[in-house]
Amino acid sequence: xxxxxxxxxxxxxxxxxxxxxxxxxxxxxxxxxxxxxxxxxxxxxxxxxxxxxxxxxxxxxxxxxxxxxxxxxxxxxxxxxxxxxxxxxxxxxxxxxxxxxxxxxxxxxxxxxxxxxxxxxxxxxxxxxxxxxxxxxxxxxxxxxxxxxx
Length: 150
What we know:
Blueprint: E1 4-9, H1 19-27, E2 35-40, H2 44-51, E3 56-63, E4 73-77, H3 81-84, H4 93-105, E5 113-119, H5 131-148
Parallel strand pairs: 1-2, 1-3, 3-5
Antiparallel strand pairs: 4-5
Helix pairs in contact: 1-5, 2-4
C-alpha cells in the first residue's frame, strides 16, 4: 500500500528549477514501495492525478522569496501557501496553489499537502544548479525521509 506520494516539480533545463526533480532522484534508492515518487512539470491535470496516489502528499520545488539565501529550505502546508504568495514564487507557484485549491474542492486532496521549497536564484536556460541549491538537495532528502518515517 502506498502511504505517501512525493512529487518533485521542476525543469531540468532551467538550472535551479531542477531542485525538486533532483530530490526525487536522490530518494529513489532510499524509500520503499510505501512511497510513490513522481516527477512533474507542474501541469495541473497530471498533478491532480498524482494527488490521488496516496493519502499523504508532499511536493518539492524550487522557490524564490527574496528574503533568504539560496539553499534555504522552507516547509509549508497547503494552508500556508496562499499567505506566502506575496513574498515567494517558483516558476510554477501560482499554478500550484490554484491546483492545490482545485484538488481540495474536488475531494482529490482530502488530507492536505506539504510543500518543501528550496530557495533558488538561477532559472536561466541550461543544466546544472547553483552550488547552494545543489548542497540543499541532500538536506531536503534527509528532512523528507525523517518526515516520512513519522
